[in-house]
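User: tokens in, sequence out, please.
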């Protein structure tokens, strides 16, 4: 129940120090306006308390009664206990007269009536001891309180004292039926009572309509600064007391009429053109008017207000009246501005993050995303994303190519159940149809305990997957190289042992061959570990220089090498290093490099078939033909050339020095 929520009405036995209800509400916290009160009731009661005329409100299903000080005379001994009491208890005998009318308005079954009924104080049960005169009569005007698209929440009633008007009208009717003689007649009574009563009644009715109009404007707007009416026929405006005091105007003058220029002066100079345009449109087209602008208040400060109203036109379509209400929106705009700033800061922060994210509601529709998400998926802007269900666009297939059903999507599942999800590897799809691997986390979003959807943070793991693939490839390659080295080393040991005549000879031969393999391995490792292009192969010229350096020593002129730049793969590098090492060893032991003036010339060419390398020695001991026995080095060189390199090696034992031709298949060069 509404009133119990605010502390309960006063009951017999409780005393109220003063009958001024405004003071009581301001002083007594539990009978004031708690934040839980409906805003329309608070606004309506604020209007009632400010009125010098009797105004009361009937609110809610139990028809609780709230009223202003002027109603105390009408309620008599039931005041102040009637304040907040159910209507039947608060109104007493009067309730039977008005209950049906109030019920019809609250149930939206009958329209409000400006002249709903006339009552006398005798019907209210008020006694003369409370200042009431039972012969007084009042006209009741009802106004529903509530939104336009829903049934009213309450009824506001203004009571107008029509006792004198009623008396004058009755006397005029009596005089018309039974004219009195001149001596019996009061001065001017016969000629003025009837017409004056009718004119006063018409004037009062018009005032009542204007007051009702203001109340309706205020109730529809909620918290207001005040109301004012521009009379286009004489260029003046009238305003209520609250409006006048807010802007430093004379309340009495505002009630009777002020020049329009005084209303214009309170509008900020920068906003006047905009206000003029909106007013002109309302005057031209008729109907509602709404504008936001700054006004200078009595303290000299400008504050934002919103003006709501409408322009009335006559039968010819000419504007005649412009009633308006001013709403204070300064605090609202500050809150709105702060929220927009926070929203902008949040958007800036989210757009600055490298990780992509997007949020969905419980139905899977996208509610927001950041710039990283748009870039990652290839969208041009948030307008292509917000409001859409994106599963069939970015998440429609599993990594194996099978269809990804909506009900299996972890993102939608979290949005519907509130469970947390983490997926370490799936595919997302860009707008161009290409896919990429992602890892993503999904968290539910709650507001005041209710599930609102989910937010998904996405990480593109393409580089991570590439690095992992490269690492696995490197491990396989390393394993292959080590196995090859062990295999070659084992073969060298076995063949060297068979051909060596002593342990020292075997040790010396093995040492040189293993060192040659080591140099080749260093060359391969250097090529693989290059940061600029780790996949680039070794170069043949570099390999020749590296392998021959220990055999040339301090005789740089003993070697000449010439040929085109030729990249070679790791396997070819290892095999060529062994062959070059064997040829250099023989040259040092038996050939040109055994003499101080001996030289070795190495040249090579590249064609479609592969590599052709020529080794020429000169300046060494004279040769009398091919050796009678082939050593292990020669056999190892031939095995490497025909096996690993897919080519051949041929010797020409010329008298002035050996000529050797080595061929390598094109397919073997890159291995």
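Assistant: Sequence out:
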């Amino acid at each position: 129940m509404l009133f119990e929520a605010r502390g309960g009405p006063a009951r017999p036995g409780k005393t109220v120090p003063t009958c001024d209800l405004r003071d009581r509400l301001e002083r007594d916290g539990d009978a004031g306006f708690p934040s839980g009160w409906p805003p329309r009731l608070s606004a309506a009661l604020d209007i009632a308390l400010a009125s010098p005329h009797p105004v009361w409100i009937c609110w809610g299903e139990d028809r609780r009664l709230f009223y202003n000080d002027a109603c105390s005379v009408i309620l008599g001994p039931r005041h102040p206990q009637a304040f907040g009491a159910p209507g039947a208890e608060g109104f007493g005998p009067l309730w039977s007269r008005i209950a049906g009318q109030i019920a019809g308005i609250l149930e939206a079954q009958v329209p409000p009536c400006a002249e709903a009924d006339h009552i006398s104080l005798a019907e209210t049960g008020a006694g003369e001891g409370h200042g009431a005169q039972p012969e007084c009569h009042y006209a009741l005007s009802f106004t529903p309180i509530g939104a336009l698209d829903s049934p009213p929440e309450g009824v506001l009633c203004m009571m107008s004292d029509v006792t004198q008007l009623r008396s004058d009208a009755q006397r005029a009717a009596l005089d018309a039926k039974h004219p009195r003689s001149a001596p019996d007649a009061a001065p001017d009574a016969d000629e003025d009572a009837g017409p004056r009563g009718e004119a006063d009644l018409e004037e009062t009715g018009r005032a009542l309509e204007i007051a009702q109009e203001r109340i309706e404007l205020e109730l529809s707007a909620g918290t207001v600064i005040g109301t004012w009416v521009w009379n286009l026929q004489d260029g003046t405006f009238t305003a209520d007391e609250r409006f006048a005091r807010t802007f430093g105007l004379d309340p009495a003058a505002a009630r009777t009429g002020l020049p329009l220029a005084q209303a214009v002066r309170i509008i900020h100079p920068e906003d006047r053109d905009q206000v003029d345009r909106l007013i002109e449109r309302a005057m031209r087209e008729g109907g509602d008017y709404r504008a936001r602008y700054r006004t200078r208040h009595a303290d000299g400060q400008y504050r934002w207000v919103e003006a709501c109203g409408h322009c009335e036109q006559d039968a010819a379509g000419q504007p005649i009246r412009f009633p308006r209400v001013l709403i204070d929106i300064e605090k609202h705009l500050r809150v709105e501005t702060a929220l927009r700033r926070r929203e902008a800061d949040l958007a800036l922060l989210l757009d600055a993050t490298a990780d992509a994210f997007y949020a969905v509601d419980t139905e899977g529709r996208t509610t927001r995303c950041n710039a990283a998400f748009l870039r990652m998926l290839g969208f041009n802007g948030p307008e292509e994303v917000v409001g859409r269900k994106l599963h069939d666009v970015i998440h429609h297939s599993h990594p194996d190519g099978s269809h990804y059903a909506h009900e299996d999507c972890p993102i939608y599942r979290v949005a519907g159940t509130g469970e947390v999800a983490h997926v370490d590897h799936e595919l997302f799809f860009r707008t161009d149809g290409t896919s990429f691997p992602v890892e993503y986390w999904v968290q539910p979003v709650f507001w005041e305990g209710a599930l609102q959807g989910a937010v998904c943070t996405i990480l593109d793991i393409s580089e991570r997957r590439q690095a992992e693939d490269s690492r696995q490839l490197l491990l396989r390659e390393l394993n292959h190289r080590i196995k090859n080295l062990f295999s070659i080393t084992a073969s060298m040991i076995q063949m060297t042992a068979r051909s060596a005549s002593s342990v020292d000879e075997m040790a010396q031969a093995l040492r040189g061959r293993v060192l040659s393999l080591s140099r080749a391995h260093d060359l391969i490792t250097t090529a693989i570990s290059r940061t600029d292009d780790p996949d680039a192969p070794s170069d043949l010229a570099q390999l020749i220089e590296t392998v021959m350096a220990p055999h040339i020593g301090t005789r740089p002129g003993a070697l000449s090498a010439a040929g085109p730049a030729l990249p070679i793969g790791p396997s070819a590098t290892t095999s060529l290093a062994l062959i070059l090492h064997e040829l250099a060893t023989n040259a040092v032991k038996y050939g040109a490099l055994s003499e101080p003036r001996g030289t070795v010339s190495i040249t090579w060419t590249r064609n479609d078939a592969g590599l052709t390398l020529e080794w020429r020695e000169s300046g060494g001991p004279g040769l009398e033909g091919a050796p009678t026995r082939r050593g292990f080095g020669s056999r190892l060189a031939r095995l490497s050339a025909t096996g690993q390199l897919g080519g051949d090696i041929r010797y020409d034992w010329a008298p002035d020095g050996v000529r050797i031709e080595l061929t390598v298949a094109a397919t073997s060069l890159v291995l």
